[in-house]
UniProtKB/TrEMBL annotation, chain A:
Presence of keyword Cell wall biogenesis/degradation: no
Family matches, as Gene3D superfamilies: MetI-like
Lineage: Bacteria, Pseudomonadati, Pseudomonadota, Alphaproteobacteria, Hyphomicrobiales
GO cellular-component term (any): plasma membrane
Subcellular location: Cell membrane
Keyword entries, A-Z: Cell membrane, Membrane, Transmembrane, Transmembrane helix, Transport
Residue intervals of the ABC transmembrane type-1 domain: 67-254
Species this protein is from: Aminobacter carboxidus
GO biological process: transmembrane transport
Protein name: ABC transporter permease
Automatic annotation (TrEMBL), chain B:
Keywords, alphabetical: Cell membrane, Membrane, Transmembrane, Transmembrane helix, Transport
PANTHER family per the UniProt record, alphabetical: INNER MEMBRANE ABC TRANSPORTER PERMEASE PROTEIN YDCU-RELATED, INNER MEMBRANE ABC TRANSPORTER PERMEASE PROTEIN YDCU-RELATED-RELATED
The family this protein is said to belong to: Belongs to the binding-protein-dependent transport system permease family. CysTW subfamily.
Protein name stated in the entry: ABC transporter permease
One GO term of the biological process aspect: transmembrane transport
Chief place where the protein resides: membrane
Topological category with respect to the lipid bilayer: Multi-pass membrane protein
InterPro entries, sorted: MetI-like, MetI-like_sf
One Pfam family matching this protein: BPD_transp_1
Single GO cellular component term: plasma membrane
Organism: Aminobacter carboxidus
Ranges that cross the membrane: 49-69, 112-134, 146-169, 189-211, 250-272, 297-320
Domain ABC transmembrane type-1, residue spans: 108-316
Amino acid sequence: MRNMISDAPRTTLTAFYWAFLLYLLLPLTLMMAMSFKDANFVAFPIGDWTLDWYAKVMADKQFLEACLYSVMIAAASTLAATTLGTWIAMLIVAEGIKGQVIIFALACLPAVVPGMISAISLRIFISTIDMPTGTAAIILGHTVHAVPFVVVMALTRLRSMPGNLVDAARDLGADSVVAFFRITLPYLGPALVGGMIFCVLLSIDDFVRTFFLGGYRPTLPMLIFAKVQGGMSPEINAMATLVLVVTAAVGLYAEYLTRRARTR
Amino acid sequence: MVSSNTTAGYGAGRDASVPRYSTGIAKVVNSALYQHTLGAAVESRIGRIILLAGVPLIWLIMLHVGPIYQMLKISLLSHYPVQPGVESRFTFDNYAIFFRESLYFTPLIKSFIFATAATAVTLVVVYPVAYYVAKIVKPEGRSKALLLLLVPFWAGELIRTFSVIMLLANRGAVNVLLREIGLIDRPIPMLYTSFSLGFGLVYLICLYMLLPLYSAIEKIPSQYLDAAADLGAGPFTRFRRIILPLSKDGIVSGCSLVFLTCIGVFATPMLLGGPTTVLFPETISGFFHGASDKWPVGAAFALIMLVTALITAGIFMRLVGGKKRSAF
C-alpha cells in the first residue's frame, strides 16, 4: 500500500502534537514542582526542596474538613443525578411516549446554559422556594449540572441494548419494575459507573455553583480560591497537587471502565 | 381489587404459593407492601406511565426550566427579595439600565471578545492535534494518544487556572527563563492582563474542542483521501475540499461548546485578569453579593447574557453548519 500522506506534513503534525501536549502538561508540572519549594513564597528557581508543605497540608484541619465536605456533596449529588438521569433516559427511549425530542432538549438544557447563569438562576430559584443557601442547595445545584451527562451516557448504552431482553423477562412473568431492576439496570451498569465517576469529578471541581449556593463551609475549590486570593504560598501548591493526583487517578479509572464497557 | 392483584398478570394457572423470584429482589416483590403499591401500579397502563414519566417530568420542569423561569420573572420586578412596606411592581427598567450605562455595556462586549477570540485560537490550535490523533496515529495507538491529552482535564477549573499563574507570574517560569538566557533585564508583566486571561481561557477550555473535532475527523473514511490523492489533489486541496467540509459538524459543536463555556467562566477572570479585564459574569455577581435589592438587575443582566450568547452560537451554527444541530 502506498503512503498517501507524504512525510513532511506528518512530521510537522507529530511535532505539533507533542508541543501541544507539553503546553498542556507544563503548567501543571510547574505547579507540582513548586509544592516542594523550601521557602514560603512562590518563585522560580525552586532551589532547596522539602516535603514540609505536605506535612503542613495533611495536618491542616481546614483542608481535611473541606475534603470531607466536598466528597460528601459529590456522593450525594452523584447518587441523585444518576437516579434521575437514568430515569429520564428510560422515559426518552420508552415506546409510545410523545415529545421525546422535547424531553431530551429539556434534559440537556443545564449543559447548554453557561455555568455562571445556571448558578445565578439556581440562587434565585432556591430563594423563591425559601430554601437557605448551604449544603442542600449545593447538592441540588450539582445534581442539576450533572443530570444531562448521565442522560447522554445512559441513552448511548440503552440504544445499543437488544429490545428482546426486556420482552423475554416480561414473558417470564416479570413486571416492568422487576424487568428494569433485573435486566436493564445490570445492562446499564458499566456505563453508569463511568457516568457516576464523571459526576463526582464535576461536583468536586465545581466552583461557580458552590460560590453562589454555598454557605460559610468551604468546599475544596472554595478553599483553594480563598487561599489564592489571600496570597501565594507553596502550601496551596501542595494542596492542589494532592487534589490533582487523587482526581486524576479517579478519572483514569473511569476512563478504564468506560473503555472496558465499550469493548464488551 | 387489591387482593386479586397478588396473582394477576404473572401468567395464568400459576400457583400463587410458589415464589416467583428466587433471589435478591424476591423478598421485595413478594411483600404485601410492594404488591399493593408499585406492583399494583404497573398493572395498568396509566400506572406505568405515571411511574415512568412522573418523576422525570417533575424534575425537568421544576429544576431545568424552573430556575430560568424564576430568573425571568424576577428580572421584571422592581424589588426582590420582597421587603416589608415596599411594593414590587412589574417593570422593564432593569433591562433599560443595561443600555443606559456603558459601565455595564463594556464588560459584556469584553466577554464576547474574549470568548470569541479564545474559541478561534482554540479551534486553530486543537484542529491539527485532533487530525493527528484521528488520522495519523495508528488505530491501536489512538486511545493512548487521546488519553495523554485528557490528563490535565481531570485537574479541574480552579487548579488549572492556578497552574497558569506558575507560568506567567513575574517570578514565574517564563520570566525567570527569559532572564536566565539574557533576553530581558526585568520581568515582563504578563499576569493580571488580557494576555494572561486569554492564555488561561485557552488553556482551560481547549479540550472541550478536542473531542468533538476528533470524533468528526475520525469518521471521515481514509479512502476519500486516497481517492483524492490518486486524482492528483495535493495535501492542501485534500484538506480544503474533503477534511474541512466533512468535519464541519465537529467544528460547529466544538466551537459552540467552547464559546458557551467561555462566556460563563467566573473564577478564571477573577484570578488571572486585572482591573481592565472585568468581564460580564463578575459584573453580574456584584448585584448578588452587594446590596441585596439589586437582584432584579442581576437577573435581567444574566438573561441578556444568556440570550445574546445563545443567539451568537445559533447564528454560528446556521452559518457554518447549514442545518440546525444541538451542541450534543
